[in-house]
Design goal:
Length: 462
């Protein structure tokens, strides 16, 4: 079946799945993936060179958390919620029902090719929708795995997959979907939104941006260096919520760099900073590798110093962990999301100076703050407008199923995960029930002096 045939088949399928049917679909999807987890690991290894351990941690674990959270809580999510009554409509009772939006298009990215497709699928199934998935062509083995799992377990009238390049995505975007869920870069996100506007289709955009990490005091250096090293090099930095750059108090810089070196050695086995690593994946393709190389060279040519890494061999798309100091805000690496294992470090003396640097870029997807100073934490929490804020850690906000995940402005639109993903892909339908006797009838025409006074009272006090 071609794209339009599948789309029409899904649109014609007007049945609204009940609670038990939705649960069974999520369980079927979860069990099918778990039974094929070795195949999943092999597929992602072929695309990225990512180890099985990393696949299970960064691809399989977030998905299983998302699926099981939905299974445990879906009954509660689906229950209509009561709306608080109003004096103006005294006696009327309101409820909010959650209905499926209909047919949802999910366009998933290459950097986490499984979990960033599977997570939104769970939310869409929980909300009772039909789904068409367009995975990334940059990770063909992972896309093929998703297609096989889905085609073996779901009819195309419920859930279908179309592989292919940008032309396939363009063909899909011409269709009047009921919702589009896109994860990827800001530039493509704008194109998705323009295409969706032609059909007045609502969108969820999970984008990215420059997510800063601030290190405030002496006692924060060791723990911050460990967590930032881990979060930055996860997936070789190809993570939308990776710490993009570090802002650190000037007096802490040297200690922080030494701790970074210690952590690189303990986590990845770098001795004397020779690049001999395990559990460290590749850059997805040569184009992305060359982009990172250009950013690095521009910084080095304009005064930055590589205190770790910096020597590139382009051996099989492996990019060594690189830490830069003496970075300036005019460097290209500070003007776009790094999306790779290069960590620029800038110093600051005051909170206002750090905030000024952050505000030279659009609102970040995540903001990380390492501090024990309650006033410092409160000040930044109030003044930094980010998609999410994490205190004393990095990237873990993605797997907290009880919190909404999403960006703001150029870093995203809409929320995902858990209840918030269910809500995002549901149509919140208000249902208002009015009793036979209602005071609103007192305001029907003709308008007597008494009714005019009554209207004035309602305007003034209700």
């Amino acid at each position: 079946m071609n794209i339009r045939e599948v789309f029409e088949k899904q649109k014609a399928n007007r049945s609204i799945p009940a609670y038990r049917e939705r649960i069974n679909k999520i369980k079927k999807f979860l069990n099918a993936v778990l039974e094929s987890k070795e195949d999943l690991a092999e597929a992602i290894y072929k695309d990225f060179g990512k180890s099985k351990d990393d696949v299970f941690l960064t691809e399989l674990l977030p998905f299983t958390l998302e699926a099981r959270h939905a299974i445990r809580n879906l009954r509660k999510w689906m229950k209509p919620s009561k709306a608080k009554g109003t004096l103006a409509l005294f006696g009327a009772k309101g409820k909010i029902h959650f209905k499926p939006k209909g047919t949802v298009l999910i366009i998933s990215p290459w950097n986490y090719p499984f979990t960033l497709a599977a997570g939104p699928i769970v939310s869409a199934l929980a909300a009772g929708n039909k789904i068409i998935l367009k995975p990334s062509e940059k990770t063909p083995n992972s896309s093929r795995f998703l297609k096989q799992i889905i085609e073996n377990n779901f009819p195309p009238g419920e859930l279908a997959v179309f592989e292919g390049n940008a032309e396939v995505a363009k063909e899909l975007l011409k269709l009047p979907f009921d919702h589009i869920f896109f994860t990827g870069g800001t530039r493509i996100g704008k194109e998705i939104m323009k295409a969706a506007a032609e059909n007045l289709t609502p969108v969820t955009l999970e984008l990215g941006g420059k997510s800063p990490a601030i290190v405030d005091g002496e006692s924060d250096v060791k723990i911050a260096a460990e967590k930032i090293t881990w979060g930055k090099l996860l997936n070789a930095g190809q993570t939308c919520i990776a710490p993009d750059y570090v802002l650190i108090r000037k007096r802490l810089l040297n200690d922080f760099i030494e701790q970074i070196k210690i952590n690189l050695n303990s986590m990845y086995g770098i001795n004397d900073f020779k690049f001999e690593m395990t559990n460290y994946c590749k850059i997805v393709n040569t184009e992305s590798f060359e982009r990172l190389k250009t950013l690095l060279n521009d910084a080095l040519e304009n005064g930055a110093e590589a205190v770790v890494g910096g020597n590139l061999s382009n051996k099989d798309r492996v990019f060594p962990p690189t830490v830069l100091t003496n970075v300036k805000t005019f460097h290209k690496i500070m003007k776009e999301e790094v999306f790779g294992p290069i960590l620029p470090i800038l110093t600051f003396e005051s909170a206002e100076e750090a905030l000024d640097i952050i505000e030279q870029n659009p609102n970040p997807l995540s903001f990380y703050l390492f501090s024990k100073d309650k006033y410092f934490i409160r000040w930044f929490t109030a003044n930094v407008n980010a998609g999410g804020i994490v205190i004393n850690d990095v990237v873990i906000n993605f797997i907290h199923t009880g919190l909404p995940f999403g960006g703001i402005q150029t870093s995203g639109l809409g929320k995902a995960h858990g209840y918030y993903g269910f809500k995002e892909l549901s149509n919140e339908t208000p249902v208002l029930k009015q009793p036979k006797l209602t005071p609103i009838k007192l305001l029907y025409p003709p308008y007597t002096d008494f009714k005019r006074k009554l209207i004035d009272l309602v305007i003034k006090y209700f």
